[in-house]
Design goal:
The protein is mainly alpha-helical. Helix content is about 60%, strand content about 10%. It has four helices and two strands, in the order H-H-H-H-E-E. A two-stranded antiparallel ribbon has the order 1-2. Helix 2 (about 20-40) runs antiparallel to helix 4. The radius of gyration is 22 Å and the shape is rod-shaped.
Length: about 110
């Protein structure tokens, strides 16, 4: 029962964030799991001072991979109906005198 509830919460959060959360979360979990396995190796047991540089390198690699991937998968442009915006946008017209029904915007980072 707990597992289903946790999965439901994760999926709802994923939908609310337009799928961006899972991409970042997956990279974070993979990095932590890989670092945990590396720390158990004899090489890292003998050299604990290499933990921080390894963590920073893995974080940098994760960001370099996940950010372009998420930008490529999820569209950055969105549009919304004017009636859902503030009242100051409701009666606007374009340069040809036509009423504006939708506005487009860049979601950004």
């Amino acid at each position: 029962m707990r597992r289903e509830a946790a999965l439901g919460i994760l999926l709802r959060t994923e939908v609310l964030t337009n799928g961006m959360l899972f991409g970042y979360h997956l990279n974070l979990c993979c990095g932590i799991t890989m670092l945990d396995r590396l720390e158990r190796a004899q090489f890292y047991i003998k050299r604990p001072y290499l933990r921080l540089p390894t963590l920073i390198a893995m974080l940098g690699a994760s960001i370099q991979i996940s950010v372009p991937l998420c930008f490529g998968i999820f569209k950055q442009q969105a549009s919304v109906d004017v009636v859902k915006l503030e009242s100051s946008f409701h009666n606007r017209v374009d340069r040809f005198g036509q009423p504006i029904n939708q506005v487009s915007f860049n979601k950004g980072i």
